[in-house]
């Protein structure tokens, strides 16, 4: 399985660490909505087909990536930075402000 | 009278083996049943068997999308053990062990259960202490466990590298002598025959495509072979749990499906007569009666419904094998395969009535489902027949996650890929 890192290009899966389901939304840390926390921690969509997930290129640039991968075929249809403002673009913005 | 005996084998051999009956019928589905069990794997078949035998409920159909034994019951590494830390798990798996000990006799079918022991290797003094704690917890509940020294281990497994120059030197180990292996296909076939002879319809090549409802209540299934109604619908589909529950309108479950690989080498002369596990990674190995070494390691670690894995885990498993047994470096691997595991959020199973009226759920076996087969079927049958759990499966509810009652034997947290 190859994952095409937006920085580093296509790399073997061994360079990446799976960080799990990317569909989950963490409640506000101050939230006391237990059901929302329970759902975030324990409940999964677990689809057979396209799955939104988070990987980290831990053996490379260490960027966190948002990957859409098919759980039946292992085919990867999209890879993007987990944050829209992640990486060099964000750093440049910060430098501009400085 | 027993269908298989020394006499029947001899009589049939003399008649050219032409008079054997098929081990189970191939019936067409009826319009309705008392109970439908979705999933003709080990757990589904065991459930059908115990429903008929223990509870007298014989108007039962087991519907299976493929053929019997095409899923995880034929894909595991056949180890049977009850060496858990937490009481809920220990009691449940020990009940399973006791059923295993009588299973060939009970089913009149040789499941080749072999109590050759299971040895967990410790590689640090702290890990050895931890094993002592688990061993004590087991003995406290009446399960056998003994600590073994390095010398005793070397005598038991001469091929094991216990030298101080090993990559992870062995300090000692925790042995459960009553643990062992069983012939996995025979378990499926034995339960199937036992259920069939008591009147259960086993319907193969019959894929469930949806659920029938009567108001809020689940009242049957739609399948590739037509609609089938039932008062009770039981789901025992392991890695397909998410898919089947979504057909019933349940979007999320405390389950992720992951792929686990397993491997077998060419046949060797007797090499190891126990099950051994590596303590510094995740690796386990035993030798089949045919001579092949059967072994495996971790799940691949990402969600998958593909019954095949990737090379990094293959590489890791082989490295672990060689760390323990350098002498196997030139043995050839014959086959590898993958099975889809229903990894739960605490590493423990779910056997419960619900979550919908008329529905019963059995899932979350992670990659430990094979050894649980008899107790899983036994407890699930009890739950279906009596509409309440037996004491043994009462802790294994679906709502335990939201209620803070998780049963996390390894203490890994809600992280399915680490269980």
Automatic annotation (TrEMBL), chain A:
Annotated GO MF terms: sarcosine oxidase activity
InterPro entries, per the entry: SoxD, SoxD_sf
An example Gene Ontology biological process: tetrahydrofolate metabolic process
NCBIfam families with a match to the protein in the record: soxD
Protein name as it appears in the record: Sarcosine oxidase subunit delta
Automatic annotation (TrEMBL), chain B:
Keywords (A to Z) from UniProt: Cytoplasm, FAD, Flavoprotein, FMN, Nucleotide-binding, Oxidoreductase
Reactions accelerated catalytically: sarcosine + O2 + H2O = formaldehyde + glycine + H2O2; sarcosine + (6S)-5,6,7,8-tetrahydrofolate + O2 = (6R)-5,10-methylene-5,6,7,8-tetrahydrofolate + glycine + H2O2
EC number: 1.5.3.24
Matching Gene3D superfamilies: D-Amino Acid Oxidase, subunit A, domain 2 (3.30.9.10), FAD/NAD(P)-binding domain (3.50.50.60)
UniProt entry tagged with the keyword Cell inner membrane: no
Annotated GO CC locations: cytoplasm
Record keyword Nuclease present: no
A GO BP annotation: tetrahydrofolate metabolic process
Compartments, record wording: Cytoplasm
GO MF: nucleotide binding; sarcosine oxidase activity
Domain Rhodanese: 35-79
Family classification: Belongs to the SoxB family.
Stated name of the protein: Sarcosine oxidase subunit beta
Organism, as annotated: Mesorhizobium ciceri biovar biserrulae (strain HAMBI 2942 / LMG 23838 / WSM1271)
């Amino acid at each position: 399985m190859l994952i095409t890192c937006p920085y580093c290009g296509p790399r073997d899966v061994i360079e990446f660490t799976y960080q799990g389901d990317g569909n989950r939304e963490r409640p506000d840390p101050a939230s006391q909505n237990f059901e929302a926390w329970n759902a975030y921690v324990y409940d999964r969509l677990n689809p057979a087909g396209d799955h939104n997930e988070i990987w980290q290129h831990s053996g490379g640039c260490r960027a966190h990536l948002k990957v859409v991968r098919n759980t039946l075929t292992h085919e990867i249809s999209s890879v993007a930075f987990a944050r829209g403002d992640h990486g060099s673009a964000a750093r440049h913005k910060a430098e501009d402000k400085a | 009278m027993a269908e298989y005996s020394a006499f029947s084998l001899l009589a049939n051999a003399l008649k050219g083996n032409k008079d054997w009956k098929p081990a189970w019928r191939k019936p067409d589905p009826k319009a309705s049943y008392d109970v439908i069990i979705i999933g003709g794997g080990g757990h589904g078949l065991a459930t059908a068997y115990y429903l008929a035998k223990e509870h007298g409920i014989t108007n039962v159909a087991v519907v299976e999308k493929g053929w019997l034994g095409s899923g995880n019951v034929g894909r595991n590494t056949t180890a049977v053990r009850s060496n858990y830390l937490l009481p809920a798990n220990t009691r449940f798996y020990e009940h399973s062990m006791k059923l295993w000990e009588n299973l060939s006799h009970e089913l009149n079918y040789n499941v080749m259960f072999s109590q050759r022991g299971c040895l967990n290797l410790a590689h640090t003094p702290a890990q050895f202490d931890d094993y002592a704690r688990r061993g004590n917890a087991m003995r406290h509940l009446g399960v056998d466990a003994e600590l073994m020294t390095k010398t005793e281990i070397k005598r038991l497994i001469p091929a094991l590298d216990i030298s101080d120059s090993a990559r992870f030197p062995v300090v000692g180990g925790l042995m459960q002598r009553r643990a062992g292996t069983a012939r996995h296909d025979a378990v499926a076939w034995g339960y199937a025959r036992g259920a069939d002879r008591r009147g259960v319809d086993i319907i193969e090549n019959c894929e469930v495509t949806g659920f029938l409802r009567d108001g809020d209540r689940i009242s049957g299934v739609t399948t590739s072979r037509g609609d089938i109604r039932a008062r009770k619908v039981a789901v025992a589909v392991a890695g397909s749990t998410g898919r089947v529950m979504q057909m019933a309108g349940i979007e999320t479950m405390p389950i992720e499906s992951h792929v686990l690989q397993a491997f077998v080498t060419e046949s060797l002369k007797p090499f190891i007569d126990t099950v051994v596990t590596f303590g510094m990674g995740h690796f386990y190995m035993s030798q089949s009666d045919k001579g092949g070494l059967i072994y495996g390691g971790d799940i691949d670690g990402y969600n998958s419904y593909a019954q095949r894995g990737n090379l990094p885990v293959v590489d890791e498993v082989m490295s672990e094998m060689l760390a323990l047994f350098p002498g196997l470096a030139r043995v050839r691997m014959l086959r590898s395969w993958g099975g889809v595991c229903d990894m739960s959020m605490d590493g423990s199973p779910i056997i419960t009535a619900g979550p919908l009226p008329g529905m019963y759920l059995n899932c979350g076996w992670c990659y430990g489902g094979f050894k649980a087969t008899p107790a899983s079927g036994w407890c699930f049958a009890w739950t279906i027949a009596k509409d309440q759990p037996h004491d043994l499966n009462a802790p294994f509810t679906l709502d335990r996650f939201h209620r803070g009652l998780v049963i996390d034997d390894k203490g890994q947290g809600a992280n399915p890929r680490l269980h």
